[in-house]
Amino acid sequence: MLIIHRMGSLEKILADMDSYDWDSVDDYRQRSPESYRLWRQHWIDMLDASGLSLTGSLLDVACGPVSLGAYYPDTIGLDADPKYIKAIRKQSIRGIIGDFRDMPFDDDEFDYSVCFSPPLAPYELDTLNIQRDLESCELVKEVTSEMIRVTKKKVLIVHTYYANAFAPQEFKHLVEKRDTNYILYSCR
What's the whole-number mean pLDDT along residues 116-143? Predict the structure, then answer.
């Protein structure tokens, strides 16, 4: 599996994705159109609640099979799972397979970065796992740091558990607005 790391211009990275062997990637099992509509409505509600107006380039981190690119044309979806990137590319949304902790973009590449479900360490349902919580805190700190690095204006992270449990203290001075469901960071 190809994971793109820092390796040049955004145009080169997108060209590499265009030439990727997408036939070798399994298709994502589509959900119902209604579930996609509900996801997208949730995103719009969170954007409205945060007061964030997306005018400019946008990075959709951990985009999954449904991206904000459906609403904002200057969007790049980033996900580690090739099936998700294949799914958004079928919707004519630009997508890149990449590591959230080492994003392949230049500093200040995007005006905005949004993540609607930040990656956490694997969750074990049968036990309170302190090690998982520590790993999740570190992972979220790395992802948040990378999002701030590649963003000129604002970073929005939406996730109830994240906003309440894993918000990195290192970036609290950048918090512009916070709710139980999201954190809005001002990058500059």
Answer: 61
pTM across the whole model: 0.85
Give the angle 116-108-21 at the CA atoms, nearest 5°: 65
Looking at the predicted structure, is the pLDDT value of residue 123 above 90?
no
Task: For 11-186, give the CATH class.
Answer: alpha beta
C-alpha 136/C-alpha 122 separation (Å) is 8
H/E run at residue 82: helix 82-89
The residue whose two tokens read 């992270």 is 157
Residue 98: phi and psi, rounded to 5, are -160, 165
**Does residue 87 contact residue 39 with C-beta atoms inside 8 Å?**
no
CB 118 within 8 A of CB 162: yes
